[in-house]
Amino acid sequence: MEMNRRHMLSLLAAGGTATALPGLAFGETPADPVFAAFEAASQDDPWTLGFTDAPADGFQSTARRLHGRLPSGLSGVLHRNGPARFSRNDWRYRHWFDGDGMVHAWRLDRGSDVTHTARFVQTHKWQAEQAAGRFLYPAFGSQPPNARGLHGPDDINAANTSVMMVNGELMALWEGGSAWRLDPDTLDSRGPRNWGEGLGGLPFSAHPKVDPDGTIWNFGQAASHDMLVMYQIGVDGQLRRADLIHDIPGGMIHDFAVTDRSLLFLVGNLAFRRMQLPFLDSFGWDDSRGMRVIAIDKGDWSRRRTWELPPGFLFHVGGAWEDPDGTIHVDAALSDDSEVATGHARDVMLGTPRLEHQSISRMRQITLYPDGRAEQAVFSDVCAEFPQVDPRYTGLARCLTWHVGWPDGHMRGATQIVQRDVISGQTRRYDFGTDIVVEEPLFIPSSERSEEGEGWLVHTALNKREAATELHVFDAQRLEDGPVTSWRLPYACPLGFHGCWRDL
Amino acid sequence: MITSMMTAMLLAAAAGSAPESEASLTVTVDGLAPQGAVMMALYADEPNWNGGDAVEGRRVAVEGSTVTVEFAALPAGDYAIRFYHDVDGDGELDTNLMGIPSEPFGFSNNARGNFGPAAWADSVFTVAPGGNTHALQLD
C-alpha cells in the first residue's frame, strides 16, 4: 500500500500527469504534498527523526549506559514535553508547533539504569482525533481539511510546550489555553487546570517563573486584544491573584522574566494584525517601531515602566535581576527577524530546512535604566536557544546562563552546550558535532547550599548516526570535559522543547 | 375607498398568516447535565443574527439529558438558533475573565464558530409549512 502510494506520488510529481487523468485521487483524500515531501525527506535525512510521529501508546524502555556513572546526589526525574504527533490519515501539519504534546519521564537514580517513559497528553483534542483517525481542529499553524469550528481555546489545546511541577502535580503546558494536569508517576492525564472562578480555559503560558520563596508567576496572552491575564500562584498550588493587564502590545509573547520586584515582558515585532486561521497567519512582521519592553510592578499591576529596543524577535528569556535604583538586567536569545517561527518551523514539517529561513539568534545582555534608556550587548558567537539559569537565582543577581548553540548556517539543530558568564563575559562550551541534536539543558544544583553553577547539567539529544535519543549529564563546572555519563535509548524520540526536574 | 384599502390590507394580512405557510418548530437539545436551563434564541435573518434581535426566545428548565423547545405559529422561512446551557441558572451566559464562554453553547445545524459565534450561513435552516424538528447536540 505504502509502496503503491509512493509510486503514485512519483507519477504525480513527474509533472502534468494529474490533470490529464481526471478523477485521479486516493479515495476521498487527495495526496497531501507536505506529507509526501516529509516521507521523501525521511528516506535519507536522519534529522527528520526529530519530527517523526511517535507511537500513539508512547515509549517505555531502559536506557543503555554508554559511559560513566550517575553522580551521587543526582536523583530525580527529568520531565520533558514536545510535539510528537504531526500527521493523521496521511495529512501532515504545516507547523512544528502544532504537534500533540508528549510528556517524557527520564528517571535517574544512582545504582539503577536510567529509564524512560513517555506518553501523549490525553487532551480533548488528542482523544477526539485519535478516535476519528484524522485531525479535526484548526491548529496554531495549520488548517486540516474539513476542520471543525471551536468552542474555546482548549478545543485545540495541544499541551505540547513545557512541563512544571505544582504542589506535587505535573502540568503539561501550552500557551493558548489551560495547563493540563498529569500524574507525575504514571503520566496519566487528569484534565485541564482551572485556577479559579472566571479563569477556566484562559491562556496559561509555558514559562512560569518561580521565586525563591516558591511563588509562581505566569501570564497568558490575548494578542488580539493587546491584553494579558496575569497569575500569581502560591507554593501550595492555589491561586493568590489573577487579573487582566491591558495595553500590552500584541506581539507574540512566549516567555517573560521576573526580578524580585518586577514582571518583565519583551514584546517582539511579530505582531497581531487580524484574526485568521490558522492562528499564526493572524501575525505579521511590523518594525514600524521598536521592540517594547514593559516592567509591571509585582505588588501593583497597574504600575509599569517601559523601554524600547531595536526591532527583533525572541522566544526565550534567560533571567533578570533588578538593582536598588531600579535598573533591570536581562538576557535573552534575540534575533533580528522571526524566520524561525514563520519559515523554519514550517520547513521542519516538509523535512527540508532552507537557509533563507535561518534566524540568527544570539544571547544578548540587555540593561534597562530608570531614565528610560536601554542598552544591549551581543555576547555569544553562535546561534543560541533554550537559555537556562540556576533556578535558585530566578529574579536575583547571578552570573551564569546555559544555552544550546550551533554555528551560523547549520540548519539541523543545536550542536553545543554553552555556558556564559554574563558578568565576566567568559564562555565555556562542549561541542558534540553535527551528528548530535542537543536539546534544552537544565541546571540542577548539587545541594541547596552549593554555589551558583555548582551542580549538573542534564539534557537529552538526538543522535542522528545511531537513530537514537540519548541523555547526557555534565558537571556544570567542567563543561569542556564532556558528559560525565551518557545513556542511549533503543529508539529515537521526536525533539522536544522544555523540561523540568523533579527531585526524588 | 379607504375602507376598501383597509379591507385589502386585512385580507393581505390574513393571507400572510394563512394556514398553508404557518409552521411550528420543535428543537431538541441533547447532551445536557440535568441542572439549570437551556436559553434559546431564534433569529429570522442575517443582520439580526449579527447583532440584532431574536424573533423568539425561550427558557426551558433542564431535568434530564435532553430538553425540547417548542416554537409555535412561526412564518415558514429561514431561521437560525443560538443557545446556551445556563448551568447555574443565573439567566446569563457566564464567561471567563477574557470573555470566553464558560457555559456550554451551540448553534443550529450544530455549527461552530472560530473565535466567535458561528456564521449565519453555517447555522441557517429552513422551517417549512407545518411541523418541523431540529436536533442539536452539546458536546
Number of strands of chain A: 35
State the helicity of chain A in percent bands: under 10%
CATH domain class of chain B: Mainly Beta
What is the distance, rounded to the nearest whole angstrom, between the alpha carbons of the first and last residues of chain A?
48 Å
Number of domains of chain B: 1
CATH superfamily heading of chain B: Immunoglobulins
**CATH fold assignment of the largest domain in chain A:** Methylamine Dehydrogenase, Chain H
Structure notes:
The complex is a heterodimer of chains A (504) and B (139). With 504 residues, chain A is mainly β. Chain A has helices at 2-13, 17-20, 33-41, 124-132, 339-350; strands at residues 59-62, 64-67, 76-85, 87-88, 91-92, 100-108, 115-120, 162-166, 169-173, 180-182, 189-192, 209-210, 216-222, 227-233, 239-246, 257-258, 262-267, 270-272, 283-285, 291-297, 304-309, 313-322, 328-335, 362-368, 374-378, 383-388, 400-406, 416-421, 427-431, 436-438, 442-445, 455-463, 468-475, 485-488, 498-503. In chain A, 9% of the residues lie in helices and 38% in strands. In chain A, β16 (257-258) and β17 (262-267) form a beta hairpin. Chain A is globular and about 55 Å long. Chain B has 139 residues and is of the alpha+beta class. Chain B has a single domain (21-137), classed as Immunoglobulin-like. Chain B is 17% helix and 40% strand. Chain B is built from 3 helices and 8 strands. Chain B has helices at residues 2-16, 46-49, 120-123, and strands at 22-30, 37-43, 56-61, 66-75, 77-86, 105-107, 125-127, 130-137. The longest helix of chain B has 15 residues, at 2-16. Chain B starts with a helix and ends with a strand. Residues 1-20 of chain B have low confidence and may be disordered. Classes of the chains: A mainly beta (504), B alpha+beta (139). The A-B interface holds A 138, 148-153, 198-203, 222, 224-225, 227, 229, 242-244, 275, 277 and B 95-98, 100-102, 104-105, 111-115, 118, 122.
